[in-house]
Amino acid sequence: MARRKLQRRSLQFASRAIHVGQEPEAATGAITVPIYQTSTFAQSAPGVHQGYDYSRTDNPTRTALQKALASLESANYCLAFSSGMGAATTATLLFKHGDHIVSSRDVYGGTYRLFRRVLQDFGLTFSFVETSNVKGIERVMTRHTRLVWIESPTNPLLRITDIRAAAEIAHRHGALCLVDNTFASPFFQRPLALGADLVLHSTTKYLAGHADVVGGAICLNERSLYERLKFLQNAAGATPSPFDCFLTLRGLKTLALRMREHEKNAIRVAGFLKDQPRVRRVYYPGLSSHPGHEIAAEQMDGFSGIVSFEVKGGLTGARRVLGRLKIFKIAESLGGVESLVELPAVMTHASIPKEERKKSGLDDGLIRLSVGIEDIDDLIFDLESALKSQG
After folding, report:
1. pLDDT tens, 13-65?
2. Of 81, 107, 264, 288, which is least packed with CB atoms within 10 Å of its CB?
């Protein structure tokens, strides 16, 4: 009896996170990608080498990370950076004096600071709009617009932008579309498949996932754009160390498992919070009451692990809640296995002027939770205790 021939199939996400770019090392068979802790590489003759000459330009550990991240974002190329802001700054070096960038109004404070307090001084111009209403993007597009910069979900109000529609508007005006995918991770959302040109990550967050390394990445498909960014990556020099790449690769291996748990816990936390009398408003795209829920459900495979909410009593009430939490630790950043809590107005978004925060709807008393993967009953008890003590 003839043996049935099995069809070849592509590896699924969780398998790619473990295997792509991470084959056993050729010399020894080591299962884990080595840390190539070297600044330079021997050449057999001047200009003749094995693909590596200097670690700022390229390093084998970084190559493994870039291959893995490209696979997870369904991208042809990926470039790794020393931080999310290093990636963001390098992306903006694509543009010149007089170019115009449209950005989500509700955007990470570090991104706003880069745009308003650094790049504006070099002649770039910016329009901050509510990109969840794509008509707002269309209204501010000009003949000088070169980029539409989107966060979806946004930081910290978790607003959702129709990425496909935003990319179509950008392309119709001859501009690129960049999506900061940090909050969703490629496990839940792949913007390149929705028409985006560039996907940016702070790999510090969900991708590395253990609050022990800082990094960034840009994923993309178009070769000429990659070559330009590769040149800028080397020229500007915001590249990660081999050890940072090793740590991020280690975190990637459990990304699928962690993201499932983050989302499962976040859904329970959001459901609990919306029924609390001392909570004024809950922001989580997984709730059917969220204004962007339908679009999120269409373009995402899940709703991730960030929940924001407002309590009665404004900033004073919010400070009181944070002071009484035990498991949720007060800290900036997000996406690690441990649960964190912060007040954006005085922490991650303090660099945004108060009047601008008000325009974006960011209340001074807004609390942002990064829901970790602890036991959900412990997390709910922690929140319940803090809220009961509030009054």
Report:
1. 999 999 999 999 989 999 999 999 999 999 999 999 999 999 999 999 999 99
2. 288
The DSSP output letter for 120 is G
- Structural contact between residues 239 and 56, judged by C-beta atoms closer than 8 angstroms: yes
Specify the DSSP class assigned to residue 179.
E
**How far is Cα 64 from Cα 6, in angstroms, rounded to an integer?**
29
- Report residue 80 as tokens: 């790794």
Q: Among residues 188, 189, 166, 186, which one has the least CA distance to residue 178?
A: 166
Q: How far apart are CA 213 and CA 207, in angstroms?
A: 10
**Nearest-5° Cα angle at 263, 260 to 269:** 145
Runs of H (alpha helix) within 154-301: 163-172, 185-188, 223-236, 242-252, 255-273, 293-299
Helix residue ranges per DSSP H, the chain:
13-19, 60-72, 84-92, 109-117, 134-140, 163-172, 185-188, 223-236, 242-252, 255-273, 293-299, 314-324, 354-360, 376-388
Q: How many CA atoms lie within 13 A of 14 on its CB side?
A: 6
CB 79 within 8 A of CB 66: yes
Give the span between the Cα atoms of 156 and 174, in whole angstroms.
30
What is the rounded average pLDDT of the residues 87-95? 98
In Å, what is the CA distance from 387 to each residue of 128, 249, 380, 382?
34, 38, 11, 9
CA dihedral 373, 379, 383, 384 (to 10 degrees): 150
d(CA 326, CA 389): 13
Active site residues: 56, 108, 180, 205
What are the angstrom distances between the C-alpha of 370 and each of 172, 270, 305?
36, 12, 6
Instruction: Report the half-sphere exposure of 168 (CA within 13 A, side-chain side).
Output: 8
Domain annotation for the chain: domains and CATH numbers:
13-252 (3.40.640.10), 255-388 (3.90.1150.10)
Residue with tokens 């800082």: 214
